[in-house]
Amino acid sequence: MERSESCSLWPTGSGEMARRIREADWTHAPLGTTASWSQPLRTVVDLMLAAEQPMFVVWGPGRRMLYNDAQARVLSDRHPEALGRDLLEVWHEIAADLRPLMDRAFAGEPVSRDAVRAVLDQSGPLKDAPVEWSLTPVRDDRGLVAGLFCIGQETPGPSAADQRLRESEERLRATAQYHASTLEAFGAADYDTDLLTGEIRPSPRLNALYGLPPHERPTLAACLAAVHPEDTALLSTIIDRAEAGERQFQREFRVVWPDGTVRWLLSRGEVLFDEDGCAVRVRGAAIDMTDRRRIEEDLRASEARLAAIFGSASVGLSEIALDGRFLQVNDELCRILGRQREEVLSLGVPDVTHPADVAPSLAAVAQARSLGSSAGFDKRYRRPDGTVVWASSRVTLLRHGTDGPNTLLAVTVDLTDRRAAEEALRESEARLRLAVEVGNLATWDWDMRSGRIEWSDEHYRIDGYQVGEVEPSFEAWAARVHPEDLPGALAAIEQARAGHHDYDHEFRSLHPDGAVRWCTARGRFFHDDSGEAFRMVGVMLDVTQRRSWEERLAVLVSELQHRTRNLLGVVRSVADRTLARADSIEEFQGPFRDRLGALARVNGLLSRLHEGDRITFDELLRNELMGHGMTDAGGVGDQVILRGPEGIRLRSATVQTFALALHELATNALKHGALSGSQGRLEVSWDLTDGPRGERQLRVEWRETGAAPSARIVGSGYGRELIERALPYQLQAETSYEFGPDGLRCIIALPVSAGQGSPGHEGIRGTD
Questions:
Q1: Domain carrying residue 346
Q2: Residue 53: Cβ-neighbour burial (10 angstroms; 0-12, 13-18, 19+)
Q3: Are 266 and 287 in contact (CB under 8 A)?
Q4: Residues 730 and 624 in one domain
């Protein structure tokens, strides 16, 4: 008959009882609660079926029972109907007395043989059975008691019982290395110790392990007081090693109970430090190892143990003398080392180890010898052909009692393929991580069936969330998409999913503070055989700056076109005016070249501006005067004085025409005016004033003194026409241009860029 599909706990053994359990009809008693059973509990069932001692397992609220062949003999005529039934129904005669014991065991308290014997001695079908029982709680992965492991010890006679117990314990020990976590969990007590206050958060069994009164709250001082005097340095050794970097520990030590009984405990855990690097807590679990140490002593006395292990092991096994010589090796280790068995047995560990790993290997061996526990490490072996093989080795000290020397058991696993795969994976992940970090890419992985989404930290930031602020979800992303862009974004996702093509869309993200960020996203859907999309992965990038640059570039191109049109108009006007006043090409060429030079200088200033900047008047004036050699770059000249505030910004549309006016004034001063002789002086002063309509104006006064008498009558030409006619017409300027007894006096007042304040700095002055 086929087994029930609801049974997740299924024995893998090959015995008669394993076959019966697999073939039994469980439909009348489904194992409903076994769906939550963990791998350790399945392991317990397999160990039970393999044992020759009577053993059975009780699980769940229904107290259903599985048992092995030895227990079937104890049940006699109650087998096989007892399989899968309530234990208290099977032993209904003693149910009233047995129920309290089971309740205690399900509450997490181990029940000893003496307690069970007290019940069986009163009445019931097992009163005269030569079997002693103990009940041990078995916990699942969450630490909850899911069932009971019931072990029976037949007691027909001391010698036979000891032999059967030794044989059973040898079989359990043979698998203990593979199932160490399962066996150590039986009867363990967890703890969390505050090293500053000495308070302990214990489990119920901790008091029993240390021999403390059951209802007394254990403290660090009480537990340390119970430690054997020879082992009192245990805690300080753990703290010292933790401060040196070995924060996880595993130690065996002795405790002395009030009645003088000495028990061995195994404690495994870790030391926790505060921000200042001080040890503040020790947490872990402890278990009574007294019985196991006795078993180990018996097991080490038997050479048959290693022979069975070496027979068909799929890992490299070797027994090594304390001086490093190989005593026994199996075929897998020979394959790893690339040598014949006879050759390996003639060598020592350093002979086959990579030189760089010899010292760590010896250190691990020394640790195993000094602590009496296992030491594991990864190392490299050298083959005769020079190739290197990575392997993981774990060395355990084997004690052979007083009659033989101690040796080492080494378990070696070939890591060559795994390390190659891990290295390739690390390189791939490093390249991907570097690309994502350098590119500030946000990533997502959306499981469309479960709805679960994973975001990178950058994804949170682009969406305007603090990292971890919300649970990643489709709704959390959609909530931050700009309302105007959300319909298009959703439509693009749906089109990509239905059309089996990549998702590629650009949209805005609206943050809670009102900030708007532009995002571009690309993703890919994965479809199953039916065409249904079940997963989507992708990346997103903040392109706000790119969009800003694109918009700025469009403005700059528009501005360039505008300035180019203006410049061409100015050049054409200059050419027309210059040509109209020239009688020959020679008379046209010189002035036209000079005026183009003035335009080139002002356009050089314009080209160096950032967006939103403006040319200031003092910068334009110094640039023009320096171009004629009248001043240096700072505006200082022997015959020139400049007075006025710095930083008065000019409208960009006025700069070219205004620069031509300054050029004409400077050219006239050099050729015909005050600077045509060594005695003349030029003083340019300027300031901000209020215009007739309340607008801010730049008022510039160009005053020449000490000009030669012949120069004072030169007052007509292109420059004067530009100032008196073009500036008022093109720039809405107010101008006056007149010659006095001592030279030219020209005043120009024109509107300036908006937002000008009061002068904030003294002007640049020339030398008198």
A1: 320-419
A2: buried
A3: yes
A4: yes
